[in-house]
């Protein structure tokens, strides 16, 4: 196993590479990244310019004004990166600088405030050339600071910047390794990276949704969001001050039951929240635990699931939240508006299982305090028992004896609401049976999925589907 380089060693390697040449523009937390390159030595052939356009008026004069005077944004970062690269190209002749691979590194951040009510966050990125004659690539990421001291946050930011620049030039052919290297000399509990985006010719085959998955898988963040176009989204931008309605499932594949639960649950939610559907952020959530249900995460299987959800037009949340209360608690960090969760009876029974909360000092009561918070409701979809044929809903499901009164309290106070307008014809649809039929190339599953999904599964041979080949076709 090769030993990891320190930030100083990484900076020196970059400085000693005569082909690498660029600028540093850092806003909001000093010049924490570039100082590593100055201190490492040999920086004169690497650093074209280092600046901190800290004053807003001066920064506006360089990069232009921002909508609503928001400076810690992805838009601002990309403006900085592209402006600085354009200056290099404008001011340096390629003929007199043969072999140079230009770059611009930038960050725009806000560290923890004086009252420690806002931990701080920021955008960090690099625009660079892998080869002199190649178009530029970009790596952009969003970070949330966890440390409670501004100086420590600045030091962490400096390490991250060095890791990013080194990774761009040494691990561009292996984005997974590049992502892992971002935490070299940084403990996971110091910094959270909740969004990353790769673009440019070097990354033309990189699937950014898989890169998002890596962030959750490696513990760099608890959750990531991407939209139906496959673009990684900043969770804060998607969820901030929104009504949130979530549906958790394996979606392997999405069935008419999932859609019926979602549509009827959302209908009830918008009435309870007194809001329009357009004012509500809808998320289909898949947990890492679900993706690992059959062993290691199968990335093809992961993409198959999210591609189907994307085809149906939904935003997708990938999370580390095995327990429902953690998901709701996460949403509550972004909004104080209504939160709704649609689930089946079996899932609600899990919520009322004390075994899931042994790691909490307050046990199930602590979990319920976070889950059944103000303006949060469960929308319960009935389940037909395959053995007995009994239809289970909130009125006849059986929770542990010691939790019956607690359950009654939540039900009486309308924190658990039955989805009554469900389609009874869907009560015989079970995703496991559908999966078995798909894998065994049996018929009779197609009409149990939303329109267009069966065709997609067949075209792309998803979930083990194999098209039958006739003897005539084989010949």
Describe this structure in words.
With 475 residues, the chain is of the alpha/beta class. It folds into 2 domains: 7-206, CinA-like (Maf protein), CATH 3.90.950.20; 238-428, Rossmann fold (3-Layer(aba) Sandwich), CATH 3.40.50. It contains 18 helices and 16 strands. A hairpin with a 6-residue loop joins strand 14 and strand 15 (391-392). The radius of gyration is 26 Å and the shape is globular.
CATH architecture identity of the largest domain: Alpha-Beta Complex
* Overall number of structural domains: 2
Kindly report the average pLDDT value. Answer: 92
Terminal residue distance: 52 Å
User: What spatial form do the alpha-carbon principal axes imply?
Assistant: globular
CATH superfamily of the largest domain: CinA-like
Q: What is the CATH topology of the largest domain?
A: Maf protein
Range of helix content: 25-40%
The radius of gyration over CA amounts to 26 Å
Q: Main β-sheet, in a few words? A: 8 strands, mixed
The spatial strand order of the largest sheet comes to 8-7-11-10-9-12-13-16
CATH class of the largest domain: Alpha Beta
Q: Note poorly predicted spans.
A: none
What is the beta-strand fraction? 15-25%
What's the total helix number? 18
Q: What structural class do the secondary elements suggest?
A: alpha/beta
Number of strands: 16
């Amino acid at each position: 196993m090769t030993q990891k380089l320190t930030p100083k060693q990484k900076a020196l390697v970059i400085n000693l590479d005569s082909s690498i040449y660029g600028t540093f523009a850092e806003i909001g937390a000093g010049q924490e990244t570039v100082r590593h390159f100055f201190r490492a030595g040999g920086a004169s052939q690497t650093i074209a310019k280092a600046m901190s356009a800290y004053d807003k008026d001066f920064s506006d004069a360089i990069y232009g004004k921002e909508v609503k005077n928001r400076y810690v944004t992805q838009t601002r970062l990309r403006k900085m990166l592209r402006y600085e690269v354009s200056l290099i190209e404008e001011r340096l002749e390629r003929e007199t600088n043969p072999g140079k691979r230009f770059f611009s590194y930038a960050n725009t951040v806000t560290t923890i405030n004086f009252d420690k009510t806002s931990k701080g966050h920021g955008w960090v990125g690099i625009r660079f050339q892998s080869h002199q004659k190649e178009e530029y690539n970009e790596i952009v990421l969003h970070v949330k600071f966890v440390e409670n001291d501004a100086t420590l946050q600045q030091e962490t930011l400096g390490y991250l910047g060095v890791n990013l620049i080194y990774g761009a030039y040494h691990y561009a052919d292996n984005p997974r390794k590049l992502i892992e290297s971002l935490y070299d000399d940084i403990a996971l509990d110091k910094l959270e990276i909740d969004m990353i985006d790769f673009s440019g010719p070097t990354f033309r085959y990189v699937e950014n949704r898989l890169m998002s998955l890596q962030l959750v898988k490696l513990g760099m963040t608890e959750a990531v969001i991407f939209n139906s176009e496959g673009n990684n989204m900043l969770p804060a931008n998607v969820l901030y001050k929104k009504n949130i309605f979530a549906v958790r499932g394996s979606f392997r594949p999405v069935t008419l039951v999932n859609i019926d639960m979602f549509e009827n649950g959302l209908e009830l939610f918008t009435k309870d929240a007194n809001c329009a559907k357009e004012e509500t952020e809808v998320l289909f959530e898949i947990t890492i635990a679900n993706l690992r249900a059959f062993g290691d995460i199968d990335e093809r299987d992961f993409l198959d699931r999210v591609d189907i959800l994307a085809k149906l037009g939904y935003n997708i949340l990938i999370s580390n939240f095995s327990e429902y209360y953690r998901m709701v608690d996460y949403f509550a960090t972004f909004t104080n508006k209504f939160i709704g969760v649609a689930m089946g009876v079996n899932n609600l029974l899990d919520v009322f299982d004390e075994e899931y909360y042994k790691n909490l000092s307050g046990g199930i009561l602590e979990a319920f305090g976070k889950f059944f918070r103000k303006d949060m409701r469960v929308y319960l979809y009935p389940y037909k028992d395959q053995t007995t044929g009994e239809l289970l809903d909130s009125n006849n499901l059986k929770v542990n004896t010691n939790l019956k009164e607690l359950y009654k309290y939540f039900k009486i106070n309308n924190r658990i609401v039955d989805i009554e307008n469900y389609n009874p014809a869907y009560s015989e649809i079970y995703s496991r049976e559908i999966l078995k039929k798909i894998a065994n190339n049996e018929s009779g599953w197609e009409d149990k999925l939303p329109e267009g999904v069966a065709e997609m599964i067949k075209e792309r041979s998803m979930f083990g589907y194999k098209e039958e080949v006739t003897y005539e076709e084989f010949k």
